[in-house]
Amino acid sequence: MTVGRAVLTSSLIVGLYYVVPVEPGVTGLQLVVRLAVTLCVGVLITWLIARQVVAYLSRSTAASLSRLFTVTTAGVVTLALTDYVVAVSYPGQFVGLATRTDALYFAVATLLTVGFGDVHADGQLARAVVIVQMIFNVGVLTGAGSILGHAVSDRISARHHATR
């Protein structure tokens, strides 16, 4: 997977995020099914990220880095969608989270730990979701981001030394 393909795939993932149907008032079996699907997607993304980290560490290739970038994007988008579903399904759980862009903004702000307080978890369910999100961010996405950062730094350093 090339860098261009990774960017295109990540862009499509974000685009898909904006069109996934979400409606308020989902309860019962439909809610249980949606939660189960969300959990399965989260586990799948965690596994894919771990797999790409192992692939990168064993054979540092541009393809493994591109895949790592793509699955990291999918992880952030899944967290944003979870936040949005909670906000739509249970009004009052989040303050300032009314749109998908608000949810994506909140997921990225939480990942980067630069929360500004304009969007925040107010209800117990939202706080529980954000706790899981923070653990996922620290345990999975931060490790992936660190590897991506080191890989970029290593490539820049290698190019610099090659031109000398």
From TrEMBL:
Pfam families: Ion_trans_2. InterPro entries: K_chnl_dom. It comes from the Bacteria. The keyword Transmembrane helix applies. Keywords: Membrane, Transmembrane, Transmembrane helix. The chain crosses the membrane at residues 31-50, 71-91, 103-121, 128-148. Residues 81-152 form the Potassium channel domain. This is Potassium channel domain-containing protein.
